[in-house]
Amino acid sequence: MRRKPRSIKIALLIASMGFLAACSDEKAAQQATSSEPAAPARVSVLSVQPAKVVVYDELPGRVSAYRTAEIRAQVSGIIEKKLFEEGASIDAHAPLFQIDPALFIAEVDASSAVLARVEAELLNARIKFERTELLSAKQINSAEALNNAAAALAQAKANVAEAKANLARRKLELSYATIKSPIAGIIGRSFLGEGGLASSSATTPLAVVQQIDQVYVDVRQSAMSKEMLEGMASNTGDAALDLPVKILTIAGKAYDQPGKMLFSDISVDTSTGSVAIRVLVPNPAQQLLPGMYIRAKVPRAIYSQALMVPQEAVVRDPSGRPQLVVVDKDSHGSRRNVSLGALVDGQYIVLSGLEAKDNVVVLGQDRAQDGVKLETTPYMPSALDVKG
């Protein structure tokens, strides 16, 4: 067998020594790196501040007009004219229908004639009474004649009063021939047109006028929620009826006018345990129409010093209990068990386990390990969170 040259052996020996030196340097570098302190973990924190918060129940409700007037005839007759356009806005006391007034004018004239006749009879009775009274003073007429003249005068006065009352009634019936709206609002369809017979005893109105510049929204709320709200409002010094009601349109969008609770019914529905609540809502653009079903956010609870955290700040332990990661003065994070209340606009109300001015980790909770120092930055809600 041939021997390898001496130069090859020397080269192999040198390469082996270089490899061992490189490994030794890498191991030393790793040891040096492990001995350096770990960099702080960056998290976003929120300093919790107490604030007044109102919790709402979102309830279905039905819209009704602020005022509704059924237009009916008070006298019977043939409709001669219709004086409005269907769907138009009308003023109070605006004429709507004209019943043929000829019959009523004739009755007014007849009553006027009767009044003129009885007034003439009154004049004659007064003259006779004065003459009889003068003769009786001279003892020319008897007392009976004076009594008869006084009775005739009183009868004439009564006839005049009756004729005046009858004339006033006939004039009133003549005025009723022009049917007017008692309120201002929007008039709907006409149920009777020209040539139709308007009857004072009809069950169907001629038309309906509704005032909707403000409307009522009727909802039903749990009696328990109502009792809770009244108790919490009295503790905070607020009046439950003064809290605004938020309205959602039929499309689910927020309505720009808040409502005001007027009253709640005194009776509880035995089948549902709820009470009826009436809400008054401004409606200047007439966007809310009578009969429309919408949703209303009615106050359910009020907290004067509520502590709130964003929904994403809440973590859960293996059993599902809610926790928050709180940063202490030494910039170390620790988990804390809390009790959560209602979720309001993406934020939980913390009922217990948290104190005011605590720094809560909102983003980066998984980086807050035991013994790891934290680098905190203020939590900034996203544009979507702010909008929501």
From TrEMBL:
NCBIfam families membership: RND_mfp (TIGR01730)
Residues of the Multidrug resistance protein MdtA-like C-terminal permuted SH3 domain: 305-367
Record-stated family: Belongs to the membrane fusion protein (MFP) (TC 8.A.1) family.
Keyword check for Signal: yes
Protein name: Efflux transporter periplasmic adaptor subunit
Parts forming coiled coils: 146-173
Cleavable signal peptide: 1-21
Domain named Multidrug resistance protein MdtA-like alpha-helical hairpin: residues: 112-177
GO MF entries: transmembrane transporter activity
Domain of life: Bacteria
GO biological process entries: response to antibiotic
One cellular component term from this protein's GO annotations in UniProt: plasma membrane
Record-annotated Multidrug resistance protein MdtA-like barrel-sandwich hybrid domain positions: 67-210
Keywords: Coiled coil, Signal
Pfam family, one: Beta-barrel_RND
Domain called Multidrug resistance protein MdtA-like beta-barrel: residue spans: 215-298
Compartments where located: Cell envelope
